[in-house]
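The instructor's notes for this session suggest beginning with a concrete chain rather than abstract definitions. Hand out the sequence below and ask the class to guess, before any prediction is shown, which regions might be ordered.
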Amino acid sequence: MDIRYERTEELIRNAVTELGKKKDIRSLTVTEIAKKARISRIAFYDHYDNVDALADNLEDEMVEDFIAVCGPFSDFTVSPDRIIRRVVNYYKTTGSSILVTPANHSHLSQKSIDRIIHEIIEKTGNTDTRFEIRVTMLITGIFGVFQRKDITDEQILKDLCACADQIMK
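After discussion, reveal the predicted structure:
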């Protein structure tokens, strides 16, 4: 791939990461992103059809990364706190955390959350209805907490893990 293309992609992503800390990604304009990235609008359109296409791409990548980094999910039933801690570490170390910040609370789509839930259920091999309900409650709750609380706060993390253990029992 052309190094200029890669560099422009990096500039776009950095701009969205910065702007997304304060504003819902989908409400950003191409002009805002281009200005922050110091590129032309034409350069943006060489990469994406629109802001929604960029946001969809970022979300798809985040879910794939999440599944790869936060797994294996086989220990989910025994120790959900291990997975929660891997998730928190993932969000601390990646720019993908902008997808679940208060400014972007509606950005992480239900489709993506459903993909994560499906992956956990598939990887554990447990198709019991009660297990599926508990996993759904837990994953939906985790992302809800991430959107509303500072997940880097150790007490909040401990409380979240304790609740997760109770749900999975």
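Then share the key points. Helices lie at 3-19, 30-37, 41-47, 51-70, 80-93, 110-124, 129-148, 154-168. Residues 28 and 51 are 7 Å apart (CA to CA).
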